Amino acid sequence: MYPAQGVRDYPRERFIDDLLREHETEIRRCLKKGAHKVQVDFTEARLAVKVDSSGHLLNSFIDLNNLALSRFSPEERRRIGVHTCPGNDLDSTHSADVDYAELLPSLFQLKAGNFYIALAGERDRRHVLEIIRRHLRADRRIFVGVVAPIDPRIETAEDVRDRVLEASEYIPIEQLGTTDDCGFSPFFDDTSTSRDTAFAKIQARVRGTAMAAELIGARQ
Ligand SMILES: [Zn+2]
User: Is pTM beyond 0.85 here?
Assistant: First the structure.
């Protein structure tokens, strides 16, 4: 974001300092207010791989995020998560064509305790789950997307149940959670999904997750 030609009386180092401090402050305020988890949006991650396939841009974002995450204790980081998706504005994506294999190994370098990964809208979910399994660390929790805000069809609880069961073949249930693939209206001008549809999808997620938990025998 900082212009290549610089800004007079405001060097890049100070910009980075300010950026990190504000980011840290925002997360701390949420934690202090009692947030169960604080999710950091990182939709730029997958887009960064598309813009720069060398991975340099992605890694620079990850280094920057890690500078901020390093300011938190391990206990605090257990309450911090990172969201990744291929974009979701106005029912469109910006980087769905980027293979998660190009992204997830680097993304998992982030010093966060939780990862919220859009999965319902993926063409090949098992391929993604396989990558997650390969790179999963014991101290991480993975929340897989089980409903797709971009898909106008409202998922049934049974759809969700089956997606959770599928994911449980790859991720130990103590480390598995569910989420929506993304927000339902990321910007105020995005009315592509109605409030009723959003709540129906969330209801399907909650009910389907409970059905799967019962089948697996997991505590909720
Ligand atoms: Zn998203």
Answer: yes
